[in-house]
Design brief:
The structure is a single chain. This protein is of the alpha/beta class and about 425 residues long. It contains 17 helices and 9 strands. The chain folds into 3 domains: about 190 residues, NADH-ubiquinone oxidoreductase 51kDa subunit (Rossmann fold); about 80 residues, Ubiquitin-like (UB roll) (Roll), CATH 3.10.20.600; about 100 residues, de novo design (two linked rop proteins) (Up-down Bundle), CATH 1.20.1440. Helix content is about 45%, strand content about 15%. The strands form 2 sheets. The protein has a 5-stranded mixed sheet with strand order 6-5-9-7-8, sandwiched between helices. The chain has a 4-stranded parallel sheet with strand order 3-2-1-4, with helices on both faces. β5 and β6 form a beta hairpin. α5 crosses α9, α13 runs parallel beside α15 and α14 runs antiparallel to α15. The longest helix has 19 residues. Bound molecules: iron/sulfur cluster. The site of iron/sulfur cluster (SF4) has 14 residues, from α13 and α15.
């Protein structure tokens, strides 16, 4: 592997090109390697340990292999399809939009390579209206990307969910549907479908050029390579950074220009994520290290909460937002999430009804695992995490006070 260009050194891999145009891209990374046979790229992906960057962290090579095994049109519903997912519905994530703006050619390379590897006849790149012009301009610059069909998806929390993307491509609403349906064997129009986040495909483009060994030169055994993160909250505007795998949450916050001095907690993994208390910000951003908190790196989203801000109020606001995002297709989700958000709002608002925490837990148990998609599970994860991490706040609220207000008054916060 490799070529005339030198592999990027340091953590700035995906953003190594000084500009987003094709000339700059080719000068930095070289052309799309046309050598590696499908099996060779799969081997490199497996050796690299690359996990999906859309949130589920599924091993990239497994997804490729699963969709590729359906290439025989006689065995499954026709020729395979590859979809690059740049929908990024999570409001606290900006990494996919940033990547598509700054390095669209890496994503296109990854999409082309994925198509070749699994023998796909159709290639789609889906993203929001804001990112479309950048991708369209990049596609127009090259002669090898004419097969890519660009599609717009609405900016909504659930529009990036895999089955919602497929539904949208089929002309339906960008809403989730049956999670038991396997895209690898029955995706778009019933055909084997490989759907990857755009960052995953950009990483594939780098691994195809420079190899698994190069990819693993940074990061840890569990979190090899680099990943994009979006840090926001407190006074920090959404900031995207490429960080080395296994960095601690505190180090990532500082790398994004934030301070950990006055933080009370960090929401890890976005609105479907879980809270990490301030005293544990030295936790590495890995699935293994975050598991005790019920958190995961997800799509690399960190939301900062000042110690002078009430974690219950912040969580109630997010739960209310999430409840409103329900596609209202499943009863437990449509009815249970608004009710759970309402009870959390009461607790956050100062109600002294001591039955509220138990009621939240009861509602969470009722909706968990009961949706056609993971929206109820993600929402209950956030809400239950709030009850655990902000347990002192819960007690204070039930006693008629608020610890965050007290801290703010005492001037603990900057
Ligand atoms: S679980 Fe909720 S968001 Fe998911 S499909 Fe059902 S109603 Fe829609």
């Amino acid at each position: 592997m490799g070529g005339e260009v030198r592999p990027p050194r340091g953590a700035g891999r995906l953003f190594a090109a000084p500009a987003s145009d094709l000339t700059s891209h080719l000068a930095t990374f070289g052309p799309v390697p046309d050598g590696p046979a499908a099996s060779h790229l799969l081997d490199e992906l497996q050796a690299s340990g690359l996990q999906g960057r859309g949130g589920a962290a599924f091993p990239a090579w497994r997804k490729f292999a699963a969709a590729g095994s359906g290439r025989d049109p006689r065995s499954r519903g026709g020729a395979a399809v590859v979809v690059a997912n740049g929908a990024e519905g999570e409001p606290r994530s900006a990494k996919d939009a940033t990547l598509l703006r700054a390095a669209p050619h890496l994503v296109i390379d990854g999409l082309l390579l994925a198509g070749r590897t699994i023998g796909a006849r159709e290639l789609y790149l889906v993203t929001t209206a804001a990112s479309l012009p950048y991708v369209a301009r990049a596609i127009a610059e090259r002669t090898d990307a004419t097969a890519i069909r660009l599609r717009e998806v609405p900016e909504a929390f659930l529009s990036g969910e895999a089955s919602a993307v497929i539904s949208s491509l089929e002309g339906g609403p960008a809403l989730p549907r049956d999670k038991s349906r396997r895209l690898s064997s029955s995706g778009l129009a019933g055909r084997p479908t490989l759907l990857n986040n755009v960052e995953t495909l950009a990483q594939v483009a780098l691994i195809a050029r420079f190899g698994a060994e190069w990819f693993r030169r940074l990061g840890t055994e569990e979190e090899p390579g680099t990943r994009l993160v979006t840090v926001s909250g407190s006074d920090l505007a959404p900031t995207v950074r490429e960080v080395v795998g296994g960095m601690t949450v505190a180090a990532i916050v500082r790398a994004a220009g934030g301070s950990t001095d006055t933080l009370g907690a960090v929401l890890v993994g976005g609105y479907h994520g879980a809270w990490l208390p301030a005293e544990r910000l030295d936790t590495p951003l890995t699935g293994h290290d975050l598991a005790p908190f019920g958190a995961a790196p997800g799509a690399g989203i960190l939301v900062l909460l000042e110690s002078a801000s009430c974690g219950l109020k912040a969580s109630a606001a997010i739960a209310g937002y999430l409840a409103a995002q329900s596609a209202r297709q499943c009863g437990p989700c449509a009815n249970g999430l608004p009710r759970m958000a309402e009870v959390l709002e009461k607790l956050a608002g100062g109600s002294r009804d001591t039955a509220l925490p138990a009621e939240i837990r009861r509602l969470a148990a009722l909706v968990t695992g009961r949706g056609s998609c993971h929206h109820p599970d993600g929402t209950t994860r956030l809400v239950l995490s709030a009850l655990t991490v902000f347990s002192a706040e819960v007690k204070a609220h039930l006693a008629g006070g608020c610890l965050a207000d007290r801290r703010a008054r005492a001037g603990v916060a900057a």
